[in-house]
Design a protein that fits this description.
Four copies of one chain form a homotetramer.
Chain A (H helix, E strand, L loop, with lengths): L1 H13 L5 E6 L3 E6 L6 E2 L3 E2 L1 H20 L6 E9 L9 E10 L3 E10 L7 E8 L7
Antiparallel strand pairs in A: 1-2, 2-6, 3-4, 5-8, 6-7, 7-8
């Protein structure tokens, strides 16, 4: 729990505007949540695309922090997202990230995005983060 | 000006939360602006990645509306974004979209994203939108 | 086995140059193989990037044919690939595809690419195919 | 001409199988050509997708070599390609690359791909290469 709490606090500090919260982190993986209210909806009752992009970006960031420690200088270099199905207007968005490569300079991971409680994903993203040179200890 | 005003009004209705505004539209292209204030910044003075993703998404949407008319059912299917340079914390973000393909089912365009007044882009995105079958007139 | 053999024969006809062969297909998934010989290698003993892109493209195509039947007009619209690790020069390349969305117009799937016998993937791709309107039967 | 000839010779050595040739290089840009014959065609008279992916990959590689010098350890980390129109079966494929970012660790560029003599592109790619640490001189 310690790691999760540390990362949650760090996230609030680094991304003060984000509505994404940490559900789980560790083992080269992370799960995050974005509460869905009227501010996230478009007419017709669907979740805005940029909300899902933010979920993908933060899920990757959290999974990486879980491996390399609290490192603000880690930045996204590439994000590719496919929108698969219309999300529910009445359920939170959940993003589940798995890291596929944890290199010295680059980290690559994928994020599957769900409307909570549904089996089929609403979107899928793959992203790359660049990590700064590690400090010697 | 009529087209631009119509699309600007439509955008406010369809994306009520967006802070992106329309600067120009027409000729398979569009320019949009995202005002940058403290709500868009991360500690260290850089613009949040999801802000730039939203600019890319809306720039594409506006350019497409400029060609096919006000069509709410047009949805993003894929967006790929590369982050190139650290954006300025004190200048608005400008997105310039050019459509590369305007098909019956799919539209593909690219968006170059700048900190206003700088020559070198801060990000570059390519996206695909799916458009619903055209109504017979 | 019938489906696999039919698709293997169709693949030879549609992609007469491809060295990719079908290992398994069905259940919204497919596994393909690319034999690696000197023609696929670069100096230093690594497999050429375009070889892995071809594996990704064909793996998606085979998985889709397994669902919609032998349909030559199915075409790639987008492919995004991340190269994760240096492939082995002495093992075949294996691509394992899973379809994430099987829509009426678009199919989206992911492909994890391995050097045979290794646990960690050498590349990962996500692609979209456009499928022609289904014939009424 | 010296730079172009050096890179052309280097390309033959590093990618001994490639059919891509260098047309022009310099100024953070490159133009390459892929001759189209029956070996590149699919039934129905279209150029195979993997041929265009190879053109994109090599165009980026050539543009980068033009900036950093002959460096075999430069490797693709990400490539995203959109297929826009059916290529001609009777014209060579031309790839025109422009680099958008030339960083110390990562280079990002875009490639527009044409059937020679046609105005509208058949495909568009964006790719990232990782470059090894520069040697001190």
């Amino acid at each position: 729990m310690r790691l999760k709490d540390d990362i949650a606090a760090f996230l609030v500090r680094e991304f003060p505007q984000t509505k994404v919260t940490v559900e789980a982190v560790g083992g080269k993986a992370a799960t995050v949540r974005h509460k869905i209210g009227t501010a996230e909806l478009r007419p017709g009752g669907t979740v805005s695309g940029p909300v899902m992009m933010a979920v993908a970006d933060v899920a990757l960031y959290v999974a990486i922090l879980g491996e390399i420690g609290l490192e603000a200088l880690t930045v996204t270099t590439n994000l590719n997202i496919n929108f698969l199905r219309k999300p529910s207007a009445t359920h939170d968005i959940i993003g589940k990230c798995t890291l596929m490569k944890l290199g010295k300079k680059l980290v690559v991971g994928e994020v599957t995005i769900y409307s909570e409680g549904r089996e089929e994903p609403v979107a899928h993203a793959v992203g790359t983060y660049s990590i700064p040179p590690r400090k010697e200890s």
